[in-house]
Specification:
6 strands; 22% helix; 6 helices; alpha+beta
């Protein structure tokens, strides 16, 4: 049975990616950059080409962001993978599933040419909507593909279940891969700052990762 006990400290630097947002995302046109010299807005026409197995990783993860919450898409992660974003820190695949099963469960948005995704029909939703009435990936741009790292810019539109307005969020997603091509560390950065893994913020992120599975109840066999 998957563990829901509090996380043990993850050795810093073992798998954690440390992307340089300015180098990866800065736009040659300074007017397109934020004051911190980053441009997280995806430009699909500038996306670098990646092999089909890497495309499958991006597709599985964008499916999850768009509410798929499927076992097939979850298999992109290694069993002891880490998920790290502004709100959560998870150190197993089961705990990561707790994050995705908190989303509404919609059929994934199909990928079209050039890194653009099309909307899904909310009327086709399955399962019980939880935090969002919809979530869809609007665009991606691959900015790095090295032997053990895959990084892309992503624009995700969230519509909270109770507020009835949509909010697009641009972020830089960086995944560290193992020898089998499984994701062992998934980092989602919403601004140029990396995560310190210190202080009250880290404590709250870890608590969210450790205990959200008790609320969202992903399948035990993930």
């Amino acid at each position: 049975m998957p563990s829901t006990t509090p996380s043990a400290p993850v050795p810093q630097g073992e798998h954690e990616p440390r992307p340089d947002p300015q180098t990866l995302t800065s736009n040659p046109n300074p007017s397109q950059n934020a004051s911190t010299d980053v441009d997280y807005t995806p430009h699909p026409d500038s996306s670098i080409r990646i092999p089909p197995e890497r495309e499958a990783i991006v597709k599985a993860i964008t499916n999850l962001y768009s509410g798929s919450a499927s076992k097939e898409d979850m298999e992109v992660y290694a069993e002891k993978a880490v998920y790290d974003d502004p709100w959560s820190f998870c150190d197993t695949r089961y705990k990561i599933a707790g994050q995705w099963y908190g989303m509404s469960q919609f059929p994934p948005s199909p990928l079209t040419s050039g890194g653009w995704f099309i909307d899904v029909n909310p009327g086709c939703a399955k399962g019980i909507p939880k935090l969002f009435s919809s979530s869809r990936t609007l665009a991606t741009e691959i900015v790095l593909s090295s032997p053990d790292t895959l990084s892309w810019k992503q624009r995700q539109e969230y519509t909270p279940k109770l507020l009835h307005y949509s909010k697009p969020v641009n972020s830089l997603i960086t995944c560290t891969l193992d020898a089998e091509g499984k994701v062992v560390y998934h980092k989602d950065q919403w601004n140029h700052k990396d995560y310190s893994h210190e202080g009250l913020g880290k404590v709250m992120k870890t608590l969210n990762g450790d205990y959200l599975t008790g609320v969202t109840r992903p399948p035990k066999d993930l």
